[in-house]
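Hi support team,

I submitted a single chain yesterday and got back a structure, but I'm not sure I'm reading the C-alpha cell output correctly. Could someone confirm the output below corresponds to the sequence I sent? I've pasted both exactly as they appear in my results page.

Thanks,
R.
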Amino acid sequence: MRSASGTDTNTPKPHNLSFVLEAPFKVKYEERPIPKLESPHDVLVQINWTGICGSDVHYYTEGRIGAFVLTSPMVLGHESSGTIHSVGSSVTSLSPGDRVALEPGVPCRRCPRCKAGTYNLCPHMAFASTPPYDGTLAKYYALPADFCYKLPDHVTLEEGALVEPTAVAVHIVRQAAVKPGNSVVVFGAGPVGLLCAGVSAAFGAERVVVVDIQENRLAFAQKWIKGAKTSTFLPGKDATAEENAARLISENSLGDGADVVIDASGAAPSVATGIEVLRTGGTYVQGGMGRPEIPFPILKVCVKEVTVKGSFRYGSGDYKLAVELVAGGKVDVKGLVTGKVGFGEAEKAFETVRGGEGIKTLIEGVKD
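Hi R., thanks for writing in. Yes, this is the structure output for that exact sequence:
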C-alpha cells in the first residue's frame, strides 16, 4: 500500500539506526536489525554516549590497522555507555533501566590465553569496530551481561563512555607495575597518554612527566593531572634522543632516570628517547601503536637491563578498577571531554578528531 505521496506505508519503520563505514572516508547512516540475544546471559543495551578513539579514526581514514582490514561495511565505535533495554533469561546482575559502561571485546573463554586469565590476548576475540565485527555507534548493541559494568548513581553516562579508555590506561599502568614513590614519564598527551598519567598518579606515583610536541596539550596535562608532582616536557625538534633525554632528566630532577616510561604515542623518536630516559633496571611499556617496524635502541635495553613490555587493550579486573577510579574521583574523565555532538553529526565529529582538535569528543546516542 502506498500513500498519496508514493511512500510505501507497509515498509517497517526505522529501528536500529547505525553509523557505518563502507570504505575510507565513506560513511553512511543505515537502518539495521535490532541485535538478537544469542545467549540467555546476554543483554541488549541502548547506547547513550560513544567516544571516538584513535583506532576508529584510523579505520575511517585508512580502512585497516595492521592485519585488521575492512572488507565489508562495518559499524564504527567502541567507547560506549548505555542503558539496559532488555536482558536474557539467565541474567540476574542487571535489569532494564540500569546504566552501564560497555566492555566491547568478548573472548572465547575457552582457549589457553582465556584460561590463563589474559583474555585480552584471546585469538578469537570479537572486538567492536574491529573487522569483521560491528561497533557500538548504533541505537542498540548486544553484549554478555558480565561485560557490562553498572555505573554508580553519581557517575554520568558521559563519564561512563570514558571508562573504556581509562581501562586501557589501567592495563598499561598495571603492566608497568607503577607503585607509590615511582617516577613516571609518559610520552604522548592524547587521551590515553593523559589517562596513563592520571592513573599513575592515582597509583601513587610521586612524579609524573608528560611529553608531547604540542604545547597546548602539555598545558592541558599540567592542569588536569591530580595527585602527583606533575611537569611537562617539549622535545627539541632537531635534538637527538640522547640530548632530549638528558635535558628531560635534568629539568625534572629525575636523578639517574625514570623508574617507569610509558609510550602512548607510537612515534619512533618517543620510543628512542623513552629508553634513554629510563634508569638502569627500569620498566618500559609500549601502549601506543605506530608504524609496524621502527629503529629500536636494543643495545641500551641490554646494557641498562630494562624490562620492556607491550600492552593491548585491557584484561581481568581492569574495567572494574577503571569504574572505581572514575567513581572515586581519582581520575577526572569528565575534564577530558572537549566536545559533544548529536548522532546525526557523527561524521563531523570524526573530522574534528582527525584534525587533532580537542582531547575527547563524544557522540550522543540515537534518541527515541
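A quick pointer for reading it: Confidence is low (pLDDT under 50) at residues 1-12. Let us know if anything else looks off.

Best,
Support desk
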